[in-house]
């Protein structure tokens, strides 16, 4: 399919849903998908009407990896000159919370795309893996770094060096997913979670995401200082006054920035 329909963009109130749409190729991530995803995220991220972005695939596959057929015959120079995969940085740069809703295969670039998100909700049918070693390469969309940070060196090495797939239960035990949900309740759970986060004040939601992500970049002392400063700064927002006053008055908060 063409770039225009490589992903489907849906809206449900303040929740935007980006659905990978190459079912016959198990949503393999080619350049069209990458460009469409980067453009959609850039537009949605600056839309004040969007509180959460959900990235999902089909029942059978979230995404079975980068498109092997598109890459197979490339030279090292072509890969380097085009900075292959760099378009995906737009996903990692997104300030709006991203939920990966994973049903079926999330392999290679699919697992790496899920790990660019802030919350990973897995259906019990989900299967994760970094099978690039079987293709004579290594993860190239962040897997060697994000997987190691997410689950630790020894669990990550097990997956990266053997290329074996793990099911949703094992992914949950090692801390690769936020939660696992029965297939029948999966989409309800994803949307309930997305709507809940999208209902909070966006300044504090962005601050929460930014601050938690600092933990992966800086020392504890620097991270704690960053957190304290951001916490204090949020007292300049109307949403802080509303949130706290609503609690005291025993009424639901009506956040302005949502
Ligand atoms: N790239 C291109 N096409 C893919 C693909 C991929 N990553 N994964 C699946 N497809 C295609 C298959 O070629 C097949 O197409 P045809 O019908 O034209 O033959 C179609 O999707 C259906 O796939 P299968 O017939 O293989 O389905 P299956 O149910 O028998 O197996 C699977 C499913 C185990 C996921 C298997 O498709 C598979 O192993 N896929 C490749 C997984 C992989 O190696 N991913 C890593 C890619 S490299 C990468 O991601 C680099 C990086 O770090 C970013």
From TrEMBL:
This enzyme's EC code(s): 4.2.1.17
Keywords: Fatty acid metabolism, Isomerase, Lipid metabolism, Lyase
MF (Gene Ontology): enoyl-CoA hydratase activity; isomerase activity
InterPro entries noted in UniProt: ClpP/crotonase-like_dom_sf (IPR029045), Enoyl-CoA_hyd/isom_CS (IPR018376), Enoyl-CoA_hydra/iso (IPR001753), Enoyl-CoA_hydra_C (IPR014748)
Substrates-to-products reaction catalysed: a (3S)-3-hydroxyacyl-CoA = a (2E)-enoyl-CoA + H2O; a 4-saturated-(3S)-3-hydroxyacyl-CoA = a (3E)-enoyl-CoA + H2O
GO biological process terms, semicolon-separated: fatty acid beta-oxidation
Superkingdom, taxonomy of origin: Bacteria
PROSITE patterns, alphabetized: ENOYL_COA_HYDRATASE
Gene3D superfamilies on file: 2-enoyl-CoA Hydratase, Chain A, domain 1 (3.90.226.10), Lyase 2-enoyl-coa Hydratase, Chain A, domain 2 (1.10.12.10)
Function as written in the Swiss-Prot or TrEMBL entry: Could possibly oxidize fatty acids using specific components.
NCBIfam families recorded: PRK05862.1
Entry's family note: Belongs to the enoyl-CoA hydratase/isomerase family.
Official protein name in the record: enoyl-CoA hydratase
Source organism per UniProt: Rhodomicrobium vannielii (strain ATCC 17100 / DSM 162 / LMG 4299 / NCIMB 10020 / ATH 3.1.1)
């Amino acid at each position: 399919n063409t770039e225009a329909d490589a992903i489907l963009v849906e809206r449900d109130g303040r929740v935007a849903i980006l659905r990978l749409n190459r079912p016959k190729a198990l949503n393999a991530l080619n350049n069209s998908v990458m460009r469409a995803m980067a453009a959609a995220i850039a537009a949605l991220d600056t839309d004040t009407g969007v509180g959460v972005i959900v990235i999902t695939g089909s029942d059978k596959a979230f995404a079975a990896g980068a498109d092997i057929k598109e890459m197979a015959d490339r030279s090292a120079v072509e890969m380097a000159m085009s900075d292959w995969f760099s378009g995906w940085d737009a996903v990692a740069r997104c300030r709006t919370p991203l939920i990966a809703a994973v049903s079926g295969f999330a392999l290679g670039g699919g697992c790496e795309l899920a790990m660019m998100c802030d919350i990973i909700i897995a259906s019990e049918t989900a299967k994760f893996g970094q099978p690039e070693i079987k293709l004579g390469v290594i993860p190239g969309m962040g897997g060697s770094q994000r997987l190691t940070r997410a689950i630790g060196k020894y669990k990550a090495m097990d997956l990266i060096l053997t290329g074996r797939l793990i099911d949703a239960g094992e992914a949950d035990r090692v801390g690769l997913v936020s939660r696992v949900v029965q297939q029948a309740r999966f989409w309800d759970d994803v949307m309930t979670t997305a709507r809940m986060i999208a209902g909070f004040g966006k300044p504090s939601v962005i601050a929460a995401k930014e601050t938690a992500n600092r933990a992966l970049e800086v020392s504890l002392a620097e991270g704690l200082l960053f957190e304290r400063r951001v916490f204090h700064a949020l007292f300049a927002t109307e949403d802080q006054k509303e949130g706290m006053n609503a609690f005291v008055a025993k009424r639901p908060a009506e956040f302005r920035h949502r």
